[in-house]
Design a protein that fits this description.
- The chain has 341 residues and is of the alpha/beta class.
- The chain has 2 domains: 1-106 and 254-341, Isopropylmalate Dehydrogenase (3-Layer(aba) Sandwich); 118-246, Isopropylmalate Dehydrogenase (3-Layer(aba) Sandwich), CATH 3.40.718.
- Helix content is 38%, strand content 20%.
- The strands form 2 sheets. Strands 2-1-3-12-11-4-5-10-8-9 form a 10-stranded mixed beta sheet, with helices on both faces. Strands 6-7 form a two-stranded antiparallel sheet.
- A hairpin with a 2-residue loop joins β6 and β7.
- α5 packs across α6 (187-197).
- The two termini are 22 Å apart.
- It binds 1,4-dihydronicotinamide adenine dinucleotide and magnesium ion (MG).
- 1,4-dihydronicotinamide adenine dinucleotide (NAI) binds at residues 13, 17, 73-76, 88, 250-251, 269-275, 281-282, 285, 321, 323.
- Magnesium ion (MG) binds next to α8.
- Pfam families: Iso_dh.
């Protein structure tokens, strides 16, 4: 068996941190099958150069040639540019990456410390209010705007299954279903019931429910109560950014976009034009995204080796980039992590 990984650095610091993730994967060596990398393009720079943000060759390579991919970050124009639309949104659609999985872990996890944040936010990625069916009309009292919110049993069940599987593999095996079915009893009710219905297939997982507003409150008051959270698209979007704020720099938070046939690692941060080109971007979010992607594919040993190396470098505290209060360069952090691997 072999492993083919597509690399799409895209814009800004994506060009610095995706090569860093590649270096970390290469360092794992024999705990992974023979690995091949395919360099692919997408993003705003690609758009300004070629007129398309997501070239057909990139999509074809991902669909036909690659087992998984790493995506850096895209710069989006601040004003609407005719013909441009986000390649990451398009990729999620084309590859049916219906789950956005974001583990949130304290930067310096001291084993045994009970206040440490260690949870995963699992966000449904394809429906809810983000189907973008909005209309504005003129009513009796002026302008009126409406949006349609779609929740299906199919999408709720498949995100639910993903969340139970993740919970089952963790020490605490605890799942919290996020909803607001006291108000939106039809849509959120369907989400809640669909996820609940799967519980009998996962008896080892304990299940709790939380209304989304109080979930945010408790997230800030006592984040340690959460293990795996599963939420519809909009709530999940907000919760996952809020959870990331608990652990400090955006430069350390990884994610994957996953479907049944493909997984794509992606750091949560953007293209960071303010620090691009200075060799000071924190590569940890991308390196952890690579580990998460490998874990999702079942390469636990390789993923563990990468994560443990990152933990150890962070705990050492000697080589940290400026976003974590250090003075180290991107390349020095990568070198230290590779040595630990
Ligand atoms: P950003 O995430 O690029 O940067 C926010 C702040 O965090 C900046 O001060 C930046 O220097 C810092 N930062 C981010 N990643 C870092 C890292 N790895 N190491 C150290 N510091 C880091 O968000 P911003 O500034 O709002 O957006 C910049 C561009 O990125 C925009 O064009 C935006 O549309 C795009 N963006 C793309 C995303 C994606 O590709 N998924 C997500 C968020 C923004
Ligand atoms: Mg967001």
């Amino acid at each position: 068996k072999s492993l083919t990984i597509g690399l799409i650095p895209a814009d800004g610091i994506g060009k610095e941190v995706i090569p860093a993730a590649r270096t970390a994967i290469e360092a794992v060596g024999s705990d992974l099958p023979p690995t091949r990398f395919v360099d692919l393009i997408a993003g705003f720079e690609t758009f300004t150069r070629t007129g398309v943000a997501l070239p057909e060759e990139t999509v074809e390579s991902l669909q036909n040639e690659c087992d998984c991919a790493l995506f850096g970050s895209v710069s989006s124009p601040s004003k609407k540019v005719v013909g441009y639309s986000s390649p990451i949104v398009a990729l999620r659609k084309k590859l049916d990456l219906y789950a956005n999985i974001r583990p949130v872990l304290s930067v310096s996890p001291n084993p045994g410390e009970s206040s440490a944040v260690d949870m995963i936010v699992v966000r449904e990625n394809t429906e809810c209010l983000y189907i973008k069916q909005e209309q504005q009309t003129i009513g009796e009292h002026g302008k009126e705007a409406r949006a349609t919110r779609l929740i299906t049993e199919r999408a709720s069940s498949r995100i639910g299954r993903m969340a139970y599987e993740l919970a089952k593999a963790r020490p605490r095996k605890h799942l919290t279903i996020i909803h607001k079915s006291n108000v939106l009893s039809v849509t959120d009710g369907l989400f809640r019931e669909s996820v609940r219905a799967l519980h009998e297939k996962y008896p080892e997982v304990t299940v709790a429910e939380q209304l989304v507003d109080s979930a945010v409150y408790r997230l800030f008051r006592e984040p340690q109560i959460y293990d795996v959270m599963v939420a519809p698209n909009l709530y999940g979007d907000i919760l996952s950014d809020a959870a990331a704020a608990l652990v400090g720099s955006l430069g350390v938070v990884p994610s994957v976009n996953a479907g049944d046939n493909f997984v794509m690692g992606e750091p949560v941060h953007g293209s960071a034009p303010d620090i691009f080109g200075q060799n000071i971007a924190n590569p940890i979010a991308s390196i952890r995204s690579a580990a998460l992607m490998l874990r999702h594919l079942g390469y636990m040993k390789g993923a563990d080796r990468i994560d443990l190396a990152v933990d150890s470098v962070v705990r050492d505290g000697q080589l940290l980039t400026p976003d974590l209060g250090g003075k180290a360069k991107t390349s020095e952090v990568v070198e230290a992590i590779v040595k630990k691997i």
